[in-house]
Write a structure and sequence with these properties.
single chain; about 375 residues; alpha/beta; ten-stranded mixed beta sheet; three-stranded antiparallel beta sheet; about 30% helix; globular
Length: about 375
């Protein structure tokens, strides 16, 4: 374990045009604004994490570096990566606040990456491997796509063998949601794979039940409904779970660990949705196990969440949403026949690519007209 203290960091800024508009009933985005964070230890190892901001361009690379050096690095410099990864904090008073930029998730990914590298173990093995692969479902982030683009995306997902499909719903006109379910059935050949819907808190409990009834009458069996109503309406989520036994309620994405605990204690979900920070996900998974509730994995940057998904008991789903970020790393995770696998190398296995660092960085903010297109990356068959 010698040489594992964190001594330096590197920041790289990326801004590029997405290959399609992504979003849901609440969100719309046409560009990617991303920063890679590499924490470096005494032995020269680099732990990698990413920061993503959806709604506006990030400040300059120099500005991000200054913010990180002033706000985050004093909490990391000279410390063992494993100690940071495993620490239990007691937030009180003025330290209960967000950083200027969302560094927290990137820090967790980077320190856990360094910790696993120092132990010479893949992260998913260090966390307590339960399996070597987990099924993935295709998620389009498709609310703003044309019907043709929607059908093309899910048609290709069916051909690639993804184990299920999730579409965005919550349109002011529920008939449009029904229309998209009809399109999905045609695009995928009605192949019998599970269909999930995600309303991103667009509905009330009554609207959710009415929509599910409408979809059922039209011949659509919905495997789960994700975040149908506001996250803090735990009573409403519990009522939905009891009123709609044919469709699972999948919730918790927007809640911190304390909120997830309240959700589980109220028996207000059939599936607990997690993603993001490694330590928080593992704690949430422990809570879900206490309540005998299945854990399902939503989006995590470049599917880093596969490491936790392979380590927690009873996980049967991980989301893949075709965001075309793979060019940023040397070797993305392998997805084949609808199954995703972790890397065998120590750490989480993702390494910032030389091309990304040398060719695709955008140190200064760009206007919409000046945005480059992301290099097109095709996942191997």
């Amino acid at each position: 374990m010698r040489g594992t203290r964190i001594v330096d960091f590197r920041i790289s800024r990326f801004q590029f045009r997405r290959d399609r508009p992504i979003g849901d009933a609440q969100v719309f985005a046409t560009q990617a604004n991303i920063v890679s964070l590499e924490l470096i230890d005494e032995a020269g190892r680099a732990g990698l994490g990413f920061i993503q901001v959806l709604f506006q361009p990030l400040m300059s690379e120099a500005g991000v570096e200054t913010a990180f050096r002033q706000e985050a690095f004093p909490l990391l410099e000279g410390r063992e990566a494993g100690a940071v990864a495993l620490q239990v904090t007691r937030p009180r008073g003025g330290n209960v606040r967000r950083m200027l930029l969302p560094f927290e998730e990137a820090i967790q990914h980077a320190v856990w990456d360094l910790f696993a590298q120092s132990m010479e173990l893949p992260l998913w093995r260090l966390l307590g491997e339960k399996r070597e692969a987990v099924p993935t479902y295709a998620s389009g982030l498709d609310f703003h796509l044309s019907d043709n683009d929607f059908s093309d995306l899910f048609g290709r997902a069916a051909q690639a063998g993804y184990r299920g499909y999730k579409i965005k719903v919550g349109h002011p006109d529920v008939e449009r949601d029904l229309h998209r379910l009809d399109l999905l059935k045609r695009a995928t050949g009605d192949d019998g794979r599970p269909v999930m819907i995600d309303a991103n808190e667009a509905w009330t409990a009554a609207e959710t039940q009415a929509a599910l009834d409408l979809f059922a009458r039209a011949g659509h069996r919905i495997y789960w409904i994700e975040d149908p109503i506001p996250r803090d309406d735990i009573d409403g989520l519990r009522r939905l779970r009891l009123a709609c036994p044919g469709t699972r309620v999948n919730s918790g994405e927007y809640l911190n660990v304390s909120g997830k605990r309240r959700l589980l204690q109220a028996e207000a979900c059939d599936m607990l949705n997690v993603h993001g920070q490694v330590s928080d996900v593992m704690r949430a998974g422990w809570l879900a196990g206490e309540h005998n509730v299945e854990v399902t994995f939503g989006n995590s940057f470049l599917e880093i969440g596969v490491n936790m998904a392979l380590a927690l008991p009873g996980v049967r789903w991980l989301e893949y949403s075709f965001q075309n970020f793979e060019h940023l790393v040397e070797e993305p995770y392998v997805i084949r026949d609808g199954l995703i696998r972790g890397h065998d190398r120590p750490g989480h296995g993702l390494v910032l690519s030389a091309a990304a660092r040398n060719e695709h960085r955008t140190p200064e903010p760009l206007t919409e007209d000046a945005l480059p297109a992301a290099p097109r990356w095709e996942r191997p068959a």
